[in-house]
Amino acid sequence: MRQFKLVLIGILLFSQSCRSPVIYKQGSSISNDGSNGMDTAIAEWLEPLSDSMNAEMNVVVGYTPLDFQPIRSKGRISETQQHSANLARLVSDYTLNWARKFAQNKSLPLPEMTVLNHNGLRNSIDSGYITLGQIYEVMPFDNELVLLVLSGTQMIELFDYLAQIGGSPLSGAEIYLGDTSFIKAIIQNNNFDSRRSYCIATVDFMQGGGDGFTMLKKPKRLIQTGVFLRDVIIEEMKLEMLHSNGAIQARTNPRIYHHHEP
After folding, report:
1. pTM of the model
2. Are strands 113-115 and 198-203 parallel, antiparallel or unpaired?
3. 113 and 45 share one domain
4. What DSSP designation does 106 have?
5. Contact 132/53 with Cβ under 8 angstroms?
6. Over the chain (262 residues), what is each successive 10-residue block's mean pLDDT?
């Protein structure tokens, strides 16, 4: 039933926005080039369902006076782009907050940082009221939040890869990047120690090597939460609305710093 609902949501969102193909898992998509468009019979079948689904997608889950923007560029990401990616910081902070509560409740290793991928954020959040449908547009993927225990060597491989691509959405850490390798990392206010292991929160797409994160494919330990990242964001956004002054606040602290090697 849940899968049917997600498919219907995807069809409805796509028919309204016409911005991008309906995508359910990062790395795969459903073509929508007109060669296999909905015929009249399907449209008539969907019509009685669309009103109730649209009503659900219009439910307000938050409010912000700010615009939250993803990074939209090809090639290595610049430090300026990283600093302007306030949507990436918001989502990564929500992810780490939720993951730490999940781990603590189940007596699991406590995640110390989050690393996500910019390509997973597919739309912006404009100022004003934030609806459930907007969150689905930002995160249309059914990617599960997972916890990984990585060795110090695997962490170095991760940081070096971040240097090569220019950075990624982070929470719980600050990383100083050279042109091809990392220079310094601070995790939970402590200098990175290559002699120990770390627990990180990410998504199953990246753990499987997606977007080039192959160093995550064989962690020392893999913990599946069974929860989609999109649902984590919705839950954490609602919590912030309850405990804030009635608006989602910007995360202004930088996490990525570039240092150009001589």
Report:
1. 0.82
2. parallel
3. no
4. T
5. no
6. 47 43 47 53 63 82 95 87 93 98 98 96 96 95 97 98 96 96 97 98 98 98 98 97 90 90 54
